[in-house]
Amino acid sequence: MMSCILNIMELSTDTTSTISYRERVAWVSLAAFTLPYIPYFAWLAFKAGPVAQMPVLNPVLPFALAAGSSAVLYGLGRLWLWLRFRDDARLPLDERDRSIARRSLSAAYGILIAGMIVVGCLLPFSRAGWEIVHPTVAFILLAEIVNHGTTIWLYRRGCHD
Amino acid sequence: MTEAAFTNSIRTLRFLNGEMTQAELGQRIGVTRQTIAAIEAGKYSPSLEAAFRIAEVFGKRVDEVFQRPANGAVAQRS
Question: Which residues on A lie below 8 Å from B46 (Cβ)?
Fold first, then answer.
């Protein structure tokens, strides 16, 4: 695990790394989307008491904290990648990058559509307020995880159209 | 995940062409060094256009650079 992180960030001395810049971006995005939101959803799952209804804005502060942390992590990660791999960052996407991006987005799109059907067409009949907002955020998060996870998987394990 | 349907001789051809680097080859055909490494390792199947470009760089035919194993399995990746 540690060697994997070192390779992604290229903190090791290996200068012949075969890791694509786009794969590094996917790792940063995956970390930025998962690390802050996992504690947030864990807190939601285990906190005592019923979920607050919509006029009550109690969940806003933890949610803002998670969203803000995610944005800061992503921004800092991208900045660091750009400073560390500036030459690679300037290269346009090649055919392998485009192929992987197409397949990843296609997988994530399915998750996103399924999620939007649930929260937009089914939940409004039985739930309201935060009980709709939270699943919406969760499905968007899941779609992002699938997108970046698939990207990393295809870069690591191979991509053959 | 599907396996590469063919092997290739890119690494050997690079060596025989003045030890051309992956970055040089990538630059000549319009892909990144990492994509050349992925093609050599059988982790990416290039488009027909890229395959022709690679063959042109080495002055070879496409079937001299990319080979499909007789039994359909990828026995080795040179």
Answer: 95-96
